[in-house]
Write a structure and sequence with these properties.
about 170 residues, alpha+beta, single chain, Chalcone isomerase, globular
C-alpha cells in the first residue's frame, strides 16, 4: 500500500509540474505554442540564408489583422546593418514612402542585433502592435500598427518579392 501511495504522489507531482511548466511557457510567450501555418527557406545561389516559419493560434493564415508569429532561423552570420538594409529594400519594393522607411529603419536600428548562424529572430503580431524576440527574449516592441503590418508584408503581401516563399508560409505549397 505504501508503494502504491508513493507512486501516486510521484505521478501527481510530475503531472502538476508539467501543467505548471506548460502554463508558464504559454502565459509568457503564447506564440511558442501556436501551430505552424507553413514554412519556407530563403536561398541565394547555393547558400541558405534562413529558414522561416509562420505560426498562428489555429495554424491557419486568414490575412491581415491575424495574430501571427514569423520565426526566422538564420544559417549565416549577418550584421544588423545588412538586415536593416535588406528590410528597407523590401519596403521600397512594396512601394512604401522613403520618409516612412527612414523612420522605421531608425526604430529597427535600436532593436535588432547582429545575428549569428543558428540564431532565431521572431516577430509576433498581436492586436495593434508587434514585438521582436531573439530566441525567447523580447528585444523590442513596435507600437506602430502600420509598421508592424508592413514588416509582415515583406513575406505575406501578394506583391512580395518572394511569391514562392509567401505561398509556402501561408500554407499553399
Amino acid at each position: 500500500m505504501k508503494q502504491i501511495y508513493s507512486n501516486f504522489i510521484r505521478t501527481v507531482i510530475a503531472v502538476g509540474s508539467l501543467c505548471f511548466y506548460s502554463f508558464s511557457v504559454n502565459a509568457s510567450t503564447p506564440w511558442q505554442a501556436w501551430p505552424a501555418v507553413g514554412d519556407a527557406r530563403l536561398t541565394w545561389g547555393p547558400w541558405v540564408i534562413y529558414d522561416s516559419e509562420l505560426r498562428s493560434p489555429d495554424g491557419v493564415y486568414q490575412g491581415e489583422g491575424d495574430h501571427l508569429a514569423l520565426v526566422i532561423r538564420y544559417h549565416r552570420n549577418i550584421d544588423s546593418e545588412d538586415l536593416i538594409e535588406a528590410t528597407d529594400d523590401q519596403w521600397r519594393h512594396l512601394g512604401i514612402s522613403s520618409s516612412k522607411r527612414s523612420r522605421w529603419t531608425n526604430q529597427l536600428e535600436q532593436i535588432w542585433p547582429d545575428v549569428k548562424k543558428g540564431d532565431r529572430l521572431i516577430f509576433v503580431m498581436e492586436g495593434n502592435q508587434g514585438a521582436f524576440f531573439q530566441g525567447n527574449r523580447r528585444i523590442g516592441v513596435l507600437q506602430d500598427f502600420e509598421m508592424s503590418q508592413s514588416f509582415l508584408y515583406i513575406w505575406l503581401s501578394p506583391n512580395t518579392a518572394y511569391p514562392e516563399i509567401r505561398q509556402q508560409l501561408i500554407g499553399k505549397r
